[in-house]
């Protein structure tokens, strides 16, 4: 039996298995997670990330990230706020887009911007785009993300949302070997309730959460 790596609930069930990996689902928060024995080691994982070509000048990439930047910026009522892009990757771009709108954005990434000093303060907003699905210990990272947001501040998550097993069986998102934690709409609703967060779902893959206290 595997404890849920997000809410530590003991009741998890077999959800799906393909040729490469086995997946479980938590019966409390509905997180779907990869069997720990099927995860990549850190060296292989980073080698995969090194292949990413995230160019801040790529207009297609900017349009993709605008799904996060536009609704978040619309909710930032004051100018010159401080934010953090958590899991910024090898080519930080969302931070530049938000800075172009008049805010300040610090960077953190365990591989590409590992300066942990930026984790010692709180921010008006924190973004985490296409990163949460990579978390091996999502409970730890989730608590860290929440701790970085000021009361009244925003946490913006971008990740594809898992659905039922039929949809999961043909889902391209699960085929990325670095994707190990799959959040559903129900998972985020559970987290919002547990931590007293206001929540909004924007489109198919953007979740905005606000600290209510």
Could you explain the architecture of this structure?
This protein is an alpha/beta fold and 213 residues long. The chain has a single domain (12-211), classed as Rossmann fold, CATH 3.40.50. 27% of the residues lie in helices and 26% in strands. It contains six helices and ten strands, in the order E-E-E-H-H-E-H-E-E-H-E-H-E-H-E-E. The chain has helices at residues 42-49, 59-75, 94-100, 138-147, 165-169, 185-194; strands at residues 12-17, 22-26, 32-34, 82-86, 104-108, 123-129, 149-158, 181-182, 197-202, 206-211. The strands form two sheets. It has a six-stranded mixed β-sheet with strand order 5-4-6-7-10-9, with helices on both faces. Helix 3 links the parallel strand 4 (82-86) and strand 5. The relative contact order is 0.16. The model has no long low-confidence stretch (mean pLDDT 94).
CATH superfamily: Vaccinia Virus protein VP39
SSE order in H/E notation?
Answer: EEEHHEHEEHEHEHEE
Main structural class: alpha/beta
Largest sheet: 6 strands, mixed
Q: Outline of this structure?
A:
This protein has six helices and ten strands; from the N terminus they run E-E-E-H-H-E-H-E-E-H-E-H-E-H-E-E. It is of the alpha/beta class.
Element layout with pairings:
Elements: E1 12-17, E2 22-26, E3 32-34, H1 42-49, H2 59-75, E4 82-86, H3 94-100, E5 104-108, E6 123-129, H4 138-147, E7 149-158, H5 165-169, E8 181-182, H6 185-194, E9 197-202, E10 206-211
Parallel strand pairs: 4-5, 4-6, 6-7
Antiparallel strand pairs: 1-2, 2-3, 3-8, 7-10, 9-10
């Amino acid at each position: 039996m595997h404890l849920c790596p997000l809410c530590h609930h003991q009741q998890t069930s077999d959800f799906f298995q393909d040729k490469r990996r086995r997946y479980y689902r938590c019966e409390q928060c509905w997180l779907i997670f990869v069997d720990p024995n099927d995860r990549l080691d850190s060296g292989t994982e980073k080698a995969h990330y090194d292949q990413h070509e995230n160019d801040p000048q790529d207009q297609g990439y900017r349009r993709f990230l605008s799904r996060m930047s536009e609704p978040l910026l619309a909710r930032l009522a004051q100018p010159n706020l401080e934010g953090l892009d958590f899991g910024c990757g090898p080519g930080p771009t969302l931070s530049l887009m938000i800075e172009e709108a008049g805010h300040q954005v610090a960077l953190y990434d365990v591989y590409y911007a590992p300066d942990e000093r930026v984790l010692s303060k709180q921010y008006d907003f924190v973004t985490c785009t296409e990163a949460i699905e990579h978390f091996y210990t999502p409970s730890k990272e989730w608590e860290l993300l929440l701790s970085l947001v000021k009361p009244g501040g925003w946490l913006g998550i971008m990740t594809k949302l898992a659905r039922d097993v039929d949809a999961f069986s043909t889902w391209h998102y699960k085929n990325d070997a670095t994707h190990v934690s799959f959040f559903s709409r129900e998972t985020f609703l559970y987290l919002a309730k547990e931590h007293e967060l206001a929540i909004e779902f924007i489109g198919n893959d953007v979740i905005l959460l606000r600290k209510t206290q």
